[in-house]
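PROTOCOL LOG
Step 1. Enter all chains and additional molecules of the complex.
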Amino acid sequence: MGLKMGNFFSSIWTDFYDCFIKYDYYMMYLKGLRNTIIISLLACIIGLLIGIVITCVRIAPKNNVLIRIADTIGRLYVTIIRGTPVVLQLFIGYFVVFVSLKSTSVFAIKDTAGVWVAALVFGINSGAYMSEILRGGIMSVDKGQMEAGRSLGLSWTHTFFRIVLPQALKIAIPTMFNEFITLVKETSVAGYVGIIDLMKIQKYITTQSAKLYMPLIIIAVIYLIVVLFLQFLQKRIEKKLSAGDNK
Amino acid sequence: MSNGTEIIKNKDKDRLIAVKGLYKTFGKLEVLKGVSTEIKKGEKVVILGPSGSGKSTLLRCMNLLETPTYGEIWFEGKLLTPVDPYLHFDIIRLSKTYKKLYEELKARNPVITDEDADKTVIKDIKEHDLLRRSEGAEYKKEIKTLYKKYFQNVNLTRQKIGMVFQHFNLFNNLTVMGNMTLAPVQLKLKTKAEAEEKALTLLKRIGLEDKENVYPSTLSGGQKQRIAIIRSLMMEPDVMLFDEPTSALDPEMVGEVLGLMKELADDGMTMVVVTHEIGFAKEVASRVLFVDDGKIKEENEPKEFFGNPKDPRLKDFLSKVLV
Ligand SMILES: Nc1ncnc2c1ncn2[C@@H]1O[C@H](COP(=O)(O)OP(=O)(O)OP(=O)(O)O)[C@@H](O)[C@H]1O
Ligand SMILES: [Mg+2]
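Step 2. Run joint prediction.
Step 3. Record the structure below.
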């Protein structure tokens, strides 16, 4: 029995060695992880920026034509992005927009630019969800908070940023992190357009090493670590924002 | 559009708020149907009326938390709303519509006096809402001139109009001290140190100096409302508006809030109070308004108002609340 267990563990170790350490494979995982993180982080920042802009447009008083047009565009954008699969958006962004730009551009565009394209596509995708999350947070802050600020003579902008937004963010933080976490995992389809991310590395090493399960488990652990880090960050931020709660 | 008044010269220092020909609709719902009243310095005006009659809307129009559909709101001789041409006969007379109707009337009825023709046409225009967007250059210029002369940004005005809400509306993300000092400091009316000193004085006055650093969620309703009141006082307002300040409180906390309000009244604060507290109205009010169906149906000093009501709806209302 003991011998068998020993065999089991030593064969796992061998598999791990073959898939992680041999031929410096771990460097490849790192490269994949790097691309996954670049795409996720950029997409997250782009998504947040787009989300904030769309939210501001959508909640601003609709008192001129320009803002109404912007509002319509914003709503259309959210509908289209949420109504189609992200893989499809990636294909369109990569094969339709990027590839045709590349073939017609007078400048040489490097193939590695695919990472930036993916970051942009995921960012645009995430922006739609982020704007809905932010808007939901703002809507759930009691209207009386804005009214109290205005009745003291504070401007809309002032009251919004000092009173409403902090409360909205506190409400929205858990859902926002949920979106970040989903985003990190969703980037795993980037391999479909030839981007070398974690998932793609796993496929490559699986083929090379002929070990079916080990690379899968390795990248599962790596994804998990990234997500756990995000959760840790979320807890820290929530703690900071929890001032004013019923204790 | 009846019930408009000619422009009143707003030099009168005693007149703090003037509501003129106020109409307010929410979509199809007509909530205020022509309200005109004035709040003079030192007055304590109590507004009574059945639920849904438009009391809150009237109060909230006074500091423009609601935008009037028609009519003007004046504060200390400054105009807060756009100019409402229907309230200014001299502006109506400059309109194309007036000129056209006047000529037509004269042609139809050659014997009518100029004065009568003028009256008839103005009445017609007001009643049937006949003014259009383009009424000629003269008309436009006169409106612009008035607006330029009297208009004042509402944020500036609101600093001088305190407001107390039914649900307190303390800023949940700030401490009691933060609640009290935010506006005066941000609006550069006081330095942080001055504001904090004043806040402490006020907190001591209501016996809550130990609550300086707590968040609103830890306070009782009565404490919240009293802090909301002194938060308004931080701005040193010329008038305070109260919208059912005790309606959301447990019965045992109503007294402490009414007590503070009475103190303010005794100190000479000008107050407009929407409330169901008849006792408060009888004791403190210098004038009581009865709002029903979007109009002021009766107004009087409290003795007459409660002792000798004339409007049948008011009689009915009082028979229900004075049991
Ligand atoms: N923002 C709004 N949008 C639509 N309808 C509104 C709005 N505010 C008020 N109303 C409606 O206008 C009417 C008058 O409301 P208001 O709050 O002024 O009444 P009130 O006299 O203060 O009543 P209560 O004693 O219940 O507070 C009500 O029918 C109310 O539903
Ligand atoms: Mg009300």
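Step 4. Note key features.
Chain A touches chain B at residues 142, 144-145, 147-155, 158, 162-163, 166-167, 170, 243-247 (CB under 8 Å).
DSSP finds nine helices and no strands in chain A.
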